[in-house]
User: What shape does this take?
Amino acid sequence: MIDLAFLEQQFRKYLKSANSKLNPDEEFAYIKQAISTKPKFHEATGESVDTMLNSIAGTGLSLCPTKQLCFLDVRSRKVNDAYVSEAIFDISYRGLVKLATESGCQYLRADVVRANDYFEYHGPAEKASFSAGTDTRNVFTSDRGEVVGAFAEVALANGTSLTEIVNKADLEAAGALSRGGAWKSSFVDELRKKVAIKRLFKTLPGITPEMTTAVQAADNADGVHLAEIEKIDSPFISDKTLDAISKIIKENKLDQNKIIDFCSKKLRYIESLGQLTDTEGVMLLKKLRKQVEEKDDEN
Assistant: This one.
């Protein structure tokens, strides 16, 4: 059985440690309501309950049901030959969007792409072209065909656009991993959007601690073991991208220090190009190539 008095004490401690702006009385009332409506919470492991409380405080998202930003659940996971119940803090795609805009992003958009939609991917550093249905004038068409993928795109504070895409196979894999039944419900498109947003979060420069906690909580709820999650806050530039940038700098006798200063002003502070994420590296490579082409045209 869960000791509610001890639970509240722990929850308030985590909120204080996270400097959370959440109202402790209101949020704990939502926690108690969830526990009372789902008696299985009393069978959940102590570690999972503690992680649930810590995650709520770490994201700063309210459990208010009308906002639909996040929710609590209890699910089973197979450990060795037995099943154990775990308390789960899960994030909706609306919650992920809220965290992105609060971090300084101008907007975040996600959608599901179907066979009859118009969709064109222009690379990770550009906005995608998307229209629902074959007739681009009718966005309300119901004849969109089967799901072929999903995408998420964001406009950063400096105006730069980033886009991530997820193919059908990866969406189906995410659904197969899920420990809940939502992937078989009418809310399945919301979950597909969330998969795309989570992938986008893992490439964002300057990802906030709240966003990192949210992705970890969402991955855990979706059945991805925390030890298998990619390192979210440091997806370093690939050797291929870095080599291509270095080649352009060398061949065109560009000032690498000036390029590092440019990245520090436009993206975030870095001391070397190797500290860029791969998405940032692709953006820089594209800019350098354009700069060289414009210089050649002038000559």
User: Anything to note?
Assistant: Strands lie at 70-79, 82-91, 107-114, 118-120, 129-131, 147-155, 161-167.
